[in-house]
Design brief:
The complex is a heterodimer of chains A (336) and B (593). Chain A is an alpha/beta fold and 336 residues long. Chain A has three domains: 44 residues; 131 residues, Rossmann fold; 132 residues, Response regulator (Rossmann fold, 3-Layer(aba) Sandwich). Helix content of chain A is 48%, strand content 18%. Chain A contains eleven helices and twelve strands. In chain A, strands 2-1-3-4-5-11 form a six-stranded parallel sheet, sandwiched between helices. Chain A has a six-stranded mixed sheet with strand order 7-6-8-9-10-12, sandwiched between helices. In chain A, helix 2 links the parallel strand 1 and strand 2. Chain B has 593 residues and is an alpha+beta fold. In chain B, the strands form four sheets. In chain B, strands 1, 2, 3, 4, 5 and 6 form a six-stranded antiparallel sheet that branches. In chain B, helix 2 runs antiparallel to helix 3, helix 9 packs antiparallel against helix 10 and helix 9 packs across helix 14. Classes of the chains: A alpha/beta (336), B alpha+beta (593). At the A-B interface, helix 1, helix 2, helix 9, helix 10 and helix 11 of A face strand 4, helix 6 and helix 8 of B.
Chain lengths: 336, 593
Amino acid sequence: MISRGRSEFQMNRKKALVFLLLIGLLCTTFFVYSKLRWTAKAKSSEVYEISVVCRGKDMEDRASLKAGINQAADDLSAEVNYITLSKKNDAAQQISAMKREAGSGANAILIFPADSESIVEPVHQVAGKIPVVVLQPYVQGFSGICTVSCDEFKLGESLAQKIISDGNAGHSADFHIIYQAHQSNPQLIKGLAGVLGKPGVVISETELPDDRDRAYDTAKSILMQKGRGNVIALDSGSLETAGKVKSDLVQAGVAVPAKIYGAGRTDSVVSLLENNAVEAVGAEDEYSLGYLGVKMAIDGIHKKSTKSINVNYVIADKTNMYKPQNEYILFPFLNH
Amino acid sequence: MKMLKRFLHKKSIQFVISISFTVVMILGLLLMAVLLSNQYVSSMTKSISENNKRTVDQIDLNLSSYLRSMMRTSDSMYYHVIKNSDLKSGNINSQMDLLYETNRDDLASIAVFSDNGNVITAEPLSGLKPSANVKEQEWFKSAQAQIENLHFSTPHVENLFFAPDGSYQWVISLSRYVELTEDGSVHPGVLLVDMNFSRIEQICKNNSLNTAGFVYITDGSGEIIYHPKQSLIYSNLFHENNRADAKHDDGTFLETLDGQKRLVTVKTVGYTGWKIIAVEPFQDIDTLYSHFFIYAAFIAVCVMLVLVFINLFISSRIADPIEKLEGYMKKIEGGDFDQNIEVSGSYEIEHLGKAINSMVQRIRKLMKDIIEEQEAKRRSELNALQAQINPHFLYNTLDSVVWMTENGHYKEAECMVTSLAKFFRISLSKGKNIISVADELEHARNYLIIQSYRYADKVHYSIKAEPEVMNCATIKLIVQPLVENSICHGMEYMDDGKISISAYKKGDDLYIDVADNGPGMPQEQADSLLSGKLQDTTGNKGGSGIGIRNIQERIRLYFGEPYGLSIHSEPDVGTTARIHLPAKPLDDFKGKE
């Protein structure tokens, strides 16, 4: 009887042990689950630091792009730090800024690369450490790096077709391409030349000086040149300069036969378009450019596969600039 | 059901109780979990739906207030300024300026146009863009088409006037048909009030929805007036279900967009027909639900474990005594009545145990009585047998003694009488049934001595015994009948009969062999002697085998199987009768008889 009692006691003790073990196992599982959930929650509420390395001193003329970046930062829990350069299009300074940001804990970098081949290699180096998204590259060689831009070649082709449809591309037409210092856009030029470049057609290029006054004078001299047919600005800065020169000259009673076309969008450019100083503009969807840039950077942080993306663009003139499909690109809806 | 019954039929009572309780418990818990989950989701949905409704109502209140103030501005402009002024007098400008200044935070501009689209007056004063084509504007057309109504446009860039700072502003146009008085004559015209779009944005942004929730506004046809992701929608980076949502009546409903469930609350704004739409992605509710479900499942599993443990405990408390009883019963079935059944548990089981115990005790007593009765019967049979034999044996022996005395063989007579005395002394053995092997062999020896005198050297015998068996216990008078059988059935008609008795030990067993070289018999006949099937058809005296069987039964009665007697015989060779007993010392039996 004593031995039976002992065995019953041992049996009960065994059962109690199994029970305690099961409860312990459950509690451990639950603890692990809670920990994982807490980690996932912490991870989901993690704020990513993204550095945007600009091409110049500020982004004041890129309000739409900045709005897109800020909206994406809001939606995707990112904190954006804009890094500007003391000198416009300074590749060395941009490389230094990019490396400094990568070394100081930025989770990803968005860069508007300077118009210099020297930027390509450092971008590749930094991309080996953290995700790098290249926005609006002027130079080639970023293969393997996620890029976001509009299809500059197609934009060039569309703008050229607009010039032709306006009847400004006759047999002996003259096309003068201008662009701000160090902002040549080879793909855009290629697109333009592909459509406009016919026998007898003269296509020339001028890089405007950095200095605003000198740039104004250079643009004025180009526009005032006798027999000047069309001036095509590759960027909003040169387009603004050329349009302002024409507007000023027209207001001064000087006839300017040259037609101005260009790529880029600012409020001034739109105003010049509305006032007939500029014939047509090719404007890219900068809001999407900024938004998708941040999104790609965060996808890169999450190790998702990213691919280069082209954003939309429109060719607008005075007659269609208030059409809804052009309105949202030309007059960005800046509710952020 | 039949299969279940069949399955449970062979299972133990503990298994049946445990499985039944567990199944009922799990079903109960599952039912409770499902009901609780549904209740939770339902109350969460209701709570979010109510929050959405509150938000939408609040936004409706603010938006309506703003729109009413704009409509009041338009009314004031029309009824208090335009209707009371003649365009020629010029005082319309000052009054409009006053009205504009009063509402400038909400207003972008106020303008009055003639029927052919010419600007009559505008605030803030700025030039009409040369490109402006007023007559082609939607708001202008709407005002002219439905002269009795106020018309709200969708958001658009203000494109009529030059802005003083060169900027472009997004506005919503409120237009109406007006009657203008000039030189006393009335002309049709259009009054335009451009509302600041940013004001609507402010109203909608301040809402109490969850992080992922948002509010947007459409016009009656689903065209977006305001959306927090308006730029993304215009850029095709975000899709909204605005057309479908705007078709819904006021209320809350569930919809799926791009694979995501959303709770949508719609409210129509008075007069404008605009729809305020609050969207709460169900993902938040799903996340909450999944966390709740995991917590609930954890608690349910814990409760289930505790209940299973309690269940096992209770079922074992019920089943263990029953199983213990069953174990006792199995032992009793196997013939083991030496069980003292100790049963604890419920009253019924305890009572059952006591009843079985009592029954076993009675059976045990009955069996003991039967054994004693049988033993008594055997003893009386033996006594009867002995009583039969002894007079005959005594008569023959005494006759031999008389003959020896008459012929002067005094010494042999003395020896024979002495042996007879020893023979009877051991036969009596103070009434004991168990004696030592030494005594039993001595008894056989005395018998053989007597018989050897009687048969005048026709019988030769030898007795051998291992010294260690001499003190072993044996049943009294089991060797002598075998010796007597050898003499009667083997030696009587032989001249050189030999009987050898040997006692030896093998392991824990004691053997006593009685072998003769008599005529023997077939083995079948020898076996029949023990089984009692032998029919005496030969007419030999004393051939029924009663004595042999008596020895067998007595051995088994005392020591049980496999002990007993075996006979090995071969015709013309001889017969060996082997007694098989446990090799136990005589001391073990002292006091037991």
